Amino acid sequence: MRILNKGRQPEKSLFFKYYKWVLWFSFTLYFLTSFFITNKPIPLSKTRVSGSQSSLASRVLFESVNKTSHKSKPNQVSFKDLKIYIYELPSGYNKDWLSNKRCSNHLFASEVAIHRALMNTYDLRTFDPYEADFFFVPVYVSCNFSTVNGFPDIDHARSLLSSAVQLISKNYTFWNRSLGSDHIFVASHDYGACFHAMEDRAIDDGIPDFLKNSIILQTFGVNYKHPCQDVENVLIPPYIPSESVRMTLEKAPLIGNRDIMVFFGGKMEVHPKNISGKFYSKRVRTEIWRRYSGDRRFYLRRHRFAGYQAEIVRSVFCLCPLGWAPWSPRLVESVALGCIPVIIADGIRLPFPSAVKWPEISLTVAERNVGKLGRILEQVAATNLSTIQKNLWNPAVTRALLFNNHMQEGDATWQIIDSLYHKLDRSYRRSRVSSQ
Fold first, then answer.
1. 37-88, pLDDT tens digit by residue?
2. 10 Å Cβ neighbour count for 161?
3. Over the stretch 82-130, which tens digit does the pLDDT of each residue have?
4. What phi-psi label fits residue 283: left (phi over 0), alpha (psi between -120 and 50 degrees) or beta?
5. How would you classify residue 314: left for phi > 0, otherwise alpha for psi between -120 and 50, otherwise beta?
6. Alpha-carbon gap, residue 216 to 262, rounded angstroms
7. Tens place of pLDDT for every residue, the chain, 436 residues?
8. What is the Cα–Cα distance from 221 to 229, expressed in whole angstroms?
9. How many CB atoms lie within 10 A of CB 365?
10. The sheet that has 84-86: what strands, in order across it?
11. Are strands 134-136 and 215-218 parallel, antiparallel or unpaired?
12. Cα 167 to Cα 145: distance, rounded to the nearest angstrom
């Protein structure tokens, strides 16, 4: 038996060698066949050839392997379906204004921040306008600072924007074919694309006719009909430099000692009627000062000052009353620095409600109830303060309200893209494809 076994050993090992080879070949053939049956490549003849070869290849690859629809809940991967073309305008419309460093750091600077982020978002940006869903028009209108008071002077906004529209409509076909409906502008001012700080003047002037068909990214929003939001719009947060927030939190941690119960620092007029006869803040800030300036629970400063953010991070409640417009940069500063925003601006509409659950992280007090403010805040402090703070201190909440030079998932630019994703019905390119 031993002699027979030794004689058959090579034959047996040879059989197993060929058996394993056949088995491996069969499995490989099976998986390759399954892949090509379920993932049919898009013929190049059916793909419009435009732009670089690399962008074409990446688009074909994406379309062939990503058949699943993500319309209901888009994420950063599905945003690759969306393409934005950024007009390269003469530097007088944007870059030249950056010679003043304030241009990219003041409360209206979202027009700069959004432009920068889109320029750096390579998955979404296209250099081929024919494959674009939206067209971004980068015009900085908030950087003309007054030599008298230092505030942004936007009297030139309409003429500068009109000039930009004339330029692109003359040199490109894309504005004329859609009448600007797939074009995006930023209006980060008191009353958005009405371009005036005083509401009555803003209403009288209205939104320029040449912008009425476009998409406006604006900080102004109310939950009732208003001429200055009578346009397709995306409500965005006012700009706060993320670097200043980071530096403040390095010195005083978010979850630290908060020894100030109620804080406000900003313009608080004793006699609020200005030279135009208008009452600043509808007298709300004046009423706060009159009632609570001597109240030890309230730390009130009538002007912003150096170290302003350091006081916010020490505070439990931060007052966010209206100014000339309902919105205020304090909304973002308070959230980012962990202080519960107390919103006193009747009818205000707040940005990104799907990402920031405002009722869970803030308090809203009617303008007529300012006199009851102390009692209201005492009651909250004694009942559900910890619950509100827990919701507020979620890092995702702050991320949604801050801009970054490079878009990060969930940040303010990402939220804007998410909103635009739901407006793809305005894309001329999409409408052409769906009609074919």
1. 333 332 322 323 333 333 333 332 233 233 333 333 444 446 768 999 999 9
2. 21
3. 999 999 999 999 999 999 999 999 999 999 999 999 999 989 999 999 9
4. left
5. alpha
6. 35
7. 333 344 444 444 444 455 555 555 555 554 444 434 333 332 322 323 333 333 333 332 233 233 333 333 444 446 768 999 999 999 999 999 999 999 999 999 999 999 999 999 989 999 999 999 999 999 999 998 876 677 788 999 999 999 999 999 999 999 999 999 999 999 999 999 999 989 999 999 999 999 999 999 999 999 999 999 999 999 999 999 999 999 999 999 888 899 999 999 998 876 656 656 678 899 999 999 999 999 999 999 988 887 899 999 999 999 999 999 999 999 999 999 999 999 999 999 999 999 999 999 999 999 999 999 999 999 999 999 999 999 999 999 999 999 999 999 999 999 999 999 999 999 999 887 665 5
8. 7
9. 20
10. 84-86, 134-136, 183-187, 215-218, 232-235
11. unpaired
12. 25
Q: What is the pTM of this model?
A: 0.81
What is the SS3 assignment for the chain? CHHHHHHHHHHHHHHHHHHHHHHHHHHHHHHHHHHHHHCCCCCHHHCCCCCCHHHHHHHHHHHHHCCCCCCCCCCCCHHHHCCEEECCCCHHHCHHHHHCHHHHCCCCCHHHHHHHHHHCCCCCECCCHHHCCEEECCCCCCCCECCCCCCECCCCHHHHHHHHHHHHHHHCCHHHHHCCCCEEEEECCCCHHHCCCCHHHHHHHCCCHHHCCCEEEECCCECCCCHHHCCEEEECCCCCCHHHHHHHHHHCCCCCCCCEEEEEECCCCCCCECCCCCEHHHHHHHHHHHHHCCCCCEEEECCCCCCHHHHHCCEEEEEEECCCCCCCCHHHHHHHCCCEEEEECCCECCCCCCCCCHHHHCEECCHHHHHHHHHHHHHHHHCCHHHHHHHHCCHHHHHCCCCCCCCCCCCHHHHHHHHHHCCHHHCHHHHHHHHC
Give the pairing type, strands 260-265 and 298-301.
Answer: parallel
Instruction: Give the residue among 39, 84, 22, 153 at the shortest CA–CA distance from 407.
Output: 84
As a whole number of Å, the CA-based R_g of the chain is 29
What are the beta bridge partners of residue 186?
A: 217
Between CA 327 and CA 222 the distance in angstroms is 9
